[in-house]
Structures are given as structure tokens and as C-alpha cells.
Amino acid sequence: xxxNVKAISISILSIFISFPTVVLAVGDTHLQDFTAHWAGIVxxxxxxxxxxxxxxxxxxxxxxxxxxxxAAGIIWMFVAIVYARSGDQHTAEIMIRHxxxxxxxxxxxxxxxxxxxxxxxERNVFDALRAWLVSRGFSLRNIFWITGVLSFxxxxxxxxxxxxxxxxxxxxxxxxxxxxFIAIACINIVVAANAGGAFSPFGDITTLxxxxxxxxxxxxxxxxxxxxIVNWIIPAVIMSFxxxxxKPDAIEETVELKEGAFIVVGMFIMTITMAVCAHNFLxxxxxxxxxxxxxxxxxxxxxxxxxxxxxxxxxxxEYKYIPGAGALDAESVSASHHSEEEKFDIFxxxxxxxxxxxxxxxxxILCVGGLGTMGYLAVLSQFMYIELGPTTANVxxxxxxxxxxxIPVMFAVxxxxxxxxxxxxxxxxLTAGVGGSLLSVGSAAGVAVMGQARGIYTFFxxxxxxxxxxxxxxxxxxxxxxxxxxxxxxxx
Length: 492
Known about the structure:
This protein is an all-alpha fold. The chain has a domain at 304-351. The protein has helices at 5-25, 38-55, 57-60, 65-85, 91-122, 125-134, 140-158, 160-175, 179-197, 205-212, 225-240, 261-280, 287-320, 327-342, 346-351, 355-374, 376-388, 390-404, 406-416, 422-434, 444-452, 459-463, 466-483. The longest helix is centred in the middle third of the chain and has 34 residues, at 287-320.
């Protein structure tokens, strides 16, 4: 097949020319208010119905991405129709391309991060940590605090979802048949993971969206460390009094790290550093640093492959000079090395990313973007941030995120872009990040652990401690108001 290099070059050039034009054109759009129009009402109903399916995902056994992806298509169809009928042929196209660009940045960033996390799991990094913990012979109360502390410290780097899943397996391994301990330990883990993720751009999807939007500088996120600690420590202290001090039998388990495990960890840290530097110093989207790091990980996978192949060839040569070693021995060595080589497949690891979650983000971003183009977000912004005031509105964001999910709520806030200083943007970042802890279904970490400890960590088991978590939520807001007043009046 002959490749038309000239045609490909022209196509690539046209992408480079047209893409920034679409982005710049967003400022030239004239959004209209269709909230009272029949099409606007239909769009709102479609979104509510779709999100109802998302809320009852576990009961319906239907992946959450399916209803919102369909809803996104329906909503934008109506958006295009009403704008075209009003004589505007361009706003719908410009706005949907703008939303697609936002999704593309988030998608590629998360894909790179997920691939690194999955690679560390494949190299047994997380299994080794879990094995070390369960074989130490800690008491139940020790495990309660250790898993809580590690959840808080790991989630800013490995994200709250991965951290919660890892630590919940530790609690389940140590707890054994002690259902009461497993349930309360899982609650503590979810709260700690969400709190730890609230002060890092890499700890939660909401903080990542805020950082990528350029609303809060990277280092400013760390102003939320103290409020986040308070958010977790208050319910943790209360719940710890109900954890027994008994010492279960240590589980003898050893896990051997695979070759390159620590190198992958170091590369992940370097990738995060590149993302931060790209954003802070080069004024480029952080996803550039993440995708560069993903490319380096692929090169490292190639290195491992070449190393295995050379080791195989060397082993084959050695068998030639061993008396009595036949072709069968050489073939068995070859098969053994080949199977070992196949265990590290970077594209196979990439394929194991949470594709349902990534497609869910696509649906949510386009649904919310479509409703915003219809005028609903402008009305909501007027009510919340003008009539109620930013502080009240931002506190409510956290409460609503526990019911709906913090991702669409935060994306809606970022789409509204209310006029707020850094103090208020830090507040809404905090509340959206930790508000999901109020209910088990309010965060990705909680939903994931419900699946991991099915029948033990449940909605009602979590609800039993919502009052203690609410105390931590209120206290964290109070502490933020107290210690971060230096950001009042600082423009974004």
C-alpha cells in the first residue's frame, strides 16, 4: 500500500491550524437562555434520568458510563437544534469542541496515571506492601490506624480510589471473619483516602480538574493539608474507641518484587514532576508531562523485553555446552523465559485502565457542558454564588457531591466559573473532595470499596457513622476559614 505523505502532511497541518481557532472562538460565542424552552426542559429531564441510572449502578448491574454517554448525545442534539432555529449555526459546534478538548486533557492525563498505577501493581509493588502489613502481627486497632495513615499519605500520589482498594484488602486480610472490624476499618480508609486526596492535584479527579483549569497553583493546594487532616482525624478518633485491641494471628505471606519495580515507582514520581513543571514553568497543559512519562514507561518496557530476549539467548547457548542437555531442555527453558517475558506487556497494562470510568467522564463532561450551553449553569451560578454567597454555596457543593458525585458537581462549578478569590476556590476544592465521604456512594473510593468488601462495607454501615464524618466535615471547613485567611482577596 502506497502512503500519500503529502496528504497526511496537509491533514496534520490542518489540525494544527484549526484546533487553536476553535479554542479561541469559545470567547466569541453568544450563549442563550433556553432554560424555559421545551428543549431545555427535555435536556434536564434526560440528564436526571441518566444520572438516576448511575446512582443505582450496583442494583441495576449496568455500567455507569452507558446512560450518561447516551444522554450526552441526546442533549447535544437538542442544543444544536434550538441554536440553529434561533439563527445561530456555530455556537453548538464551538461549545461541544471546547468540552471535548477539556475531556481529552483529562482523559489522557488519567490514562497515563492509571497505566503507571497498573504497572506498579503488575510489578507487585502494592502486593508487597500489603504482605508486609499483614505479616507484622499488628493488633486490630494498630491496623485501623496504620491503614488510615497510609491511606491519607498515599492518596495524594496514587489517587484516593487506588489507595482505598489497596488498604481495604489489608483490612479484610487481617480482619478475617471479624465483620465489625472490617466495616469500620473500611469507613476509616475511605474518609482518609478522600481527605488525603483533597490537598493534591493527583489525589482526586476534582482536584485534578481544578489544577488543569489553572484556578489554583500547584503549591497552593498544600494549604489544605491541615483542614484535610482535621477532616479525617476527628471521625477516626471517634471510631477508634469502637475497635478492639485484640491481636489476630499474623498471616505469613511474602511477595517478591518483580524486576524494575522500584524503577517504575521512580519513573512515576518523575512523571508527576514533569507534569508540574510543564504547567508551572512552561505554561503547558500538565497532560504533556504525563504523556511524556508514559512514553518513557513504554521505552522501559522495551528495555525489559530486550533484556529478557538476551538472557534467553544466553541460556540457550549455555545448554549447548552442558553434557546430556538435549533439545527438550532448551525448548523448556525457551518456553519458561517466553512466558516470563509475556508477563510485562505495556499495551496489555494500558488496556486494563478503568475504561468505564474514563467513558463516564466523557458522558458527564458533555452532559454538563450541554446543560451549560442551554443556560442552566448561569441560572444556578446566579442563585448559589450571588444570592446565597460563595461560602454557603461552596459548603453546599460538598453536601450535594455526597449525593450526586463530586465529579459532575465540580465540573459544573468550573464551567460556571463564578468570580471567587483563591480562598473560596480552596474551600470548594476541599468540600468537593471530602464531602463525598458523608455517604458511601459519594466518592469513587467509597463505591469501589463497597464492591471490594461486598456485604460488609455497605451503604447503611457507612451511614451509621455519617454523624461523626459530618463533624469532621464541619471542623475542616472551620479550620480552613481560620488558617487560610491569607488567601482572601487573592485573585485567580
